[in-house]
Backbone:
């Protein structure tokens, strides 16, 4: 019972808690006050009553004294008459007059009470009063005028406390009535002032509930006063602002990431679709020419047969290159490509490339001019990879150069590298006088899957060669770019440091 | 295969890729038997070729070239001299968006790459047959025969003879003669024989479509009937067959999917040529106003 009451209180709304507390405090204070008031009252009532009865006893004693002086014995009637006046005071329930010798002279008791006078020797004291067992006992000597040393006898009276009790009850009722009004007053007052504390809390709670329900983080609570609740409200608003900001940032981030992902997915799927087309073409050609060889071999001329073999050979070579590129790309994409570095002469690598491409160059009547401005320049690089890059650039030159002479330029330059700052570098460029690159595509041609409009017009090319070049040059710590020549055609440049940082940066 | 029926049809293959061109040329001459086959390596070369060879019948066009196929078509489509050229676009891109672009350009024949000689024959022979018939009809119109038009035809050959006679009822016979023949042929192929496009493609593959069909038609011995009426200076021709009928409505529109077959596009042209064309009796009877 007490426990559930306590629980109820603890879980009650703040408003009710404050009310209960205020009212309880007021009530207890009033009760204590009333109690103190009652006790003091009781005491003084007792004193008043005792004094009153003592006075009454004195009056009786005084009136009785002359009678007792003159009539020693047998004149009890006169004394009794005196005593019977006590009927006026109903609270007196017994009055006894003793001679000094201890003999009982007269006794008074109201009709409804039948009391007996105790033996004189049993009386507890010879002057004064005493409250005992809800009775007031008074005792006083009866003395003749001027004969203080020789009392005539004693008057013993017993009163009940009914008068006092009645009086006390009236006081209690008054107190209770007052208490009632006090409580009502306190209640009304408490209702008014608890708002000072509970209203700001209610406002804050309301906003919290709303936020919880609506998930709306731009709501703010209103601050009422500069107290702790005010601080709490401010803190809450601050936290909300932070959450809101974080939400907005998060949404932006999610949107951005999603766009990036979508873009990546679309690049990948475009790439796949391009690649499947690129793969299908040579496969189809191989298939067609193989069929010609199979079905029409007998009737074909020697020249035709040679042509078919060449076609199958070329197409399968293209397919192989394509698959190599794809593997390279997937390696580079996963960061799995490694360089095996050695000091190489750039001139020597360019020569090797041209030698390797002699068939294509002759076939398309393309001449190459080498412009070596840094004779004997050696560069730390992966020879195979640089050859691959050069071959790719030369092949592009043949493909898009319109048969113009390709001009390869080798010179010394510098490049900024993170670890060592500006360092000496090799700058290679290859210029053609062909169809050039549309100005707005110059930035993008190194992107994976970017198909230049010149490629789309049917000039061939897979659009992955340049992206591989870019990744390989990056791996060498260099940069690659393309530009259009004022006189037509385009130039591809790359710069790589003479001393490679590859592997060293990782070691740090 | 190869068929001798279409030897004198003049086909121009345009492709910038040397290998593809070589393959196409070999297919066209050795496998399909087009003797008058020529090659061009892009749109502009093709334009030059057509200037010097106005008798080119079919242009077999790659889409992706320096002057791409669609651009080439844009250049020739408004030239009256090239109105009856048949343009076939070959492309590997047959996604709905790509085809929609082709459809918009006005090209109505698309051959999906890669193709082999069999698919090439199934696509090219029906169009070559069109060219061949067109030539015959033109010749017949020129001969000035004054015979009355027959009231029924049993074979494609009879239809080919009847069409010019019916066309003479119109003010401009040359304009309507092909369309009249196609309506008669429709009645014979679909009404009498109930051929589907797939079967037509199969029959075309051998390059002797006309002979095969006429043999079957003679066996079936069910004619397509022709009725001509003249009213207020308007001439009506009503052509009826006794076949299963068909729903003609979809045949009056062209869709991206239809680009990919050489068949089913005659009604599209007929609707442009005749003053009015109406199907009745669940597609078994067609009435045109010349």
Residues:
């Amino acid at each position: 019972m007490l426990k559930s009451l306590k629980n109820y209180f603890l879980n009650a709304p703040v408003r009710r808690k404050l009310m209960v507390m205020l009212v309880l405090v007021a009530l207890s204070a009033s009760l204590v006050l009333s109690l103190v008031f009652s006790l003091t009252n009781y005491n003084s009532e007792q004193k008043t009553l005792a004094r009153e009865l003592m006075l009454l006893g004195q009056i009786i004693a005084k009136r009785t004294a002359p009678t007792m002086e003159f009539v020693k014995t047998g004149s009890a009637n006169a004394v009794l008459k005196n005593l019977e006046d006590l009927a006026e005071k109903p609270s007196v329930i017994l009055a006894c007059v003793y001679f000094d010798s201890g003999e009982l002279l007269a006794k008074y008791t109201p009709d409804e009470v039948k009391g007996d006078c105790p033996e004189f020797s049993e009386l507890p004291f010879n002057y004064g009063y005493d409250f005992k067992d809800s009775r007031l006992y008074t005792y006083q000597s009866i003395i003749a005028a001027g004969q203080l040393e020789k009392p005539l006898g004693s008057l013993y009276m017993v009163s009940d406390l009914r008068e006092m009790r009645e009086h006390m009850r009236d006081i209690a009722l008054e107190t209770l009535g007052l208490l009632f009004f006090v409580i009502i007053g306190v209640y009304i007052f408490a209702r008014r002032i608890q708002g000072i504390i509970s209203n700001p809390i209610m406002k804050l709670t309301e906003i919290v509930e709303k936020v919880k329900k609506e998930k709306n983080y731009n709501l703010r609570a209103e601050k009422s006063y500069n107290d702790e609740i005010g601080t709490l409200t401010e803190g809450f608003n601050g936290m909300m602002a932070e959450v809101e900001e974080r939400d907005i940032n998060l949404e932006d981030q999610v949107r951005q990431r999603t766009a990036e992902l979508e873009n990546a997915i679309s690049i990948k799927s475009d790439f796949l679709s391009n690649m499947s087309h690129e793969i299908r073409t040579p496969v189809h050609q191989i298939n067609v020419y193989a069929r010609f060889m199979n079905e029409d071999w007998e009737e074909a001329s020697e020249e035709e047969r040679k042509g078919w073999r060449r076609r199958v050979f070329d197409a399968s070579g293209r397919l192989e290159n394509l698959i190599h590129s794809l593997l390279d790309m997937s390696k580079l994409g996963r960061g799995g490509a490694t360089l095996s570095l050695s000091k190489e002469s750039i001139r020597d690598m360019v020569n090797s490339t041209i030698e390797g491409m002699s068939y294509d160059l002759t076939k398309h009547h393309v001449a190459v001019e080498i412009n070596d401005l840094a004779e004997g320049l050696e560069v730390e690089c992966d020879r195979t990879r640089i050859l691959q890059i050069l071959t790719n650039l030369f092949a592009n030159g043949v493909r898009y150069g319109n048969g113009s002479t390709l001009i390869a330029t080798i010179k010394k330059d510098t490049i900024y590298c993170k670890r060592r700052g500006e360092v000496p570098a090799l700058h290679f460029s290859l210029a053609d006088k062909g169809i050039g690159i549309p100005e707005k595509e110059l930035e993008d041609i190194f992107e994976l899957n970017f198909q230049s409009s010149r490629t789309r017009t049917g000039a061939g090319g897979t659009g992955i060669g340049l992206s591989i070049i870019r990744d390989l040059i990056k791996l060498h710590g260099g940069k690659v770019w393309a530009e259009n020549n004022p006189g037509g055609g385009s130039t591809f440049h790359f710069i790589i440091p003479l001393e490679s940082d590859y592997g060293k940066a990782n070691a740090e | 295969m190869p068929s001798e029926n279409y030897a004198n049809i003049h086909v121009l293959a345009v492709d910038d890729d040397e290998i593809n061109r070589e393959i196409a040329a070999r297919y066209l001459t050795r496998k399909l038997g087009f003797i008058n086959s020529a090659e061009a390596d892009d749109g502009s070369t093709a334009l030059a070729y057509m200037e010097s060879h106005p008798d080119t019948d079919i242009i077999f066009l790659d889409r992706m070239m320096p002057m791409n196929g669609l651009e080439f078509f844009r250049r020739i489509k408004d030239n009256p001299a090239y109105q009856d050229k048949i343009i076939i676009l070959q492309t590997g891109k047959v996604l709905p968006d790509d085809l929609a672009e082709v459809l918009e350009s006005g090209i109505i024949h698309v051959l999906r790459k890669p193709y082999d000689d069999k698919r090439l024959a199934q696509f090219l022979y029906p169009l070559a047959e069109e060219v061949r018939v067109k030539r015959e009809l033109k010749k017949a119109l020129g001969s000035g025969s004054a015979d009355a038009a027959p009231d029924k035809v049993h074979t494609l050959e009879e239809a080919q003879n009847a069409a010019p006679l019916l066309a003479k009822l119109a003010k401009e016979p040359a304009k309507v003669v092909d369309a009249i023949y196609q309506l008669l042929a429709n009645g014979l192929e679909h009404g009498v024989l109930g051929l589907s496009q797939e079967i037509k493609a199969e029959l075309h593959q051998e390059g002797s479509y006309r002979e095969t069909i006429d043999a079957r038609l003679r066996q079936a011995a069910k004619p397509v009937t022709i009725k001509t009426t003249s009213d207020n200076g308007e001439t009506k021709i009503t052509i009826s067959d006794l076949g299963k009928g068909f729903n003609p409505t979809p045949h009056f529109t062209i869709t991206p999917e239809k680009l990919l077959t050489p068949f089913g596009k005659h009604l599209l042209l007929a609707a442009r040529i005749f003053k009015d064309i109406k199907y009745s009796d669940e597609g078994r009877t067609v009435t045109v106003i010349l």
User: Anything to note?
Assistant: Residues 117-143 of chain B form the longest helix (27 residues).
